[in-house]
EamA family transporter
Amino acid sequence: MSTSETAAPTRQSATSAGTAPAPAPGRWGALGPVGLVLAGGVSVQFGGALAVTLMPRAGALGVVALRLLVAAVVLLVVCRPRLRGYSRADWGTVVVFGITMAAMNGLFYQAVDRIPLGTAVTLEVLGPLALSVLVSRRALNLVWAGLALAGVFLLGGGVGDLDPLGAAFALTAGAMWAAYIVFSGRTGRRFPQADGLALAMAVGAVLFLPLGVVESGTKLLDPVTLGLGAAVAILSSVLPYTLELLALRRLPASTFAIMMSLEPALAAAAGFLILDQTLSTMEAAAIALVIAASMGAVRTQVGRRGRPVAPEV
């Protein structure tokens, strides 16, 4: 998978890096592929909203540490990746993938600790969108970039008290998301099945755990905190990867990528229902512009190659 092939603005990494073995299709098949994708998107965004409620107990860094640790344990137990037979370059790739994953999660959770969830996801999705625009090299993508910039302008103007540091964290998380897409593809080529994803998640957990301990200390050992942290990991990582992998067995990657462009809207809904974060008319218009830009960029990729690869929290 080349860099240009990983440019669709999506979240899913399981398509390239693999994921945990999924349940039998019959268990989830009644939902249909579109329903599976929507369920995965709802899961990851409501997991993010749950993480925000956990932050007063464990801190942003503590929540990320718990999410990565639990997800790593689940993936390692289920996948049981082998550790021998890989080159130094293979291990270097998976380590960079793990670092990128940890940075993406850490920066995003710092953002949602400061700004509304829907706003954070809208800013974050600009990273994959920028990657898609850059590698496509088509004039039409300048239109989509312009729409996205208009959305960001409205978002900044519509939220007078938007924390600039929170916005910076979200934008930087978007840059890490773009890097994540690239390295998920490289890891997927070097490691079979979900082995690369499981090992990268373990790398990220090991690197981030000291930060979580420094910030939260023994609070991480509280049973309620551990339980909520495990729920965040399942909702934001394990369950979405499984549902989306099942969906991609029956759903064209181009359709999947377009559906993933709805992430900001799902995040805004989760923020409203769980965190009581309401949207103004201008904020809603800004999110709609970014969603339209993401969908447009994906459609341009489809028109150019016929079928983009949908790479991804």
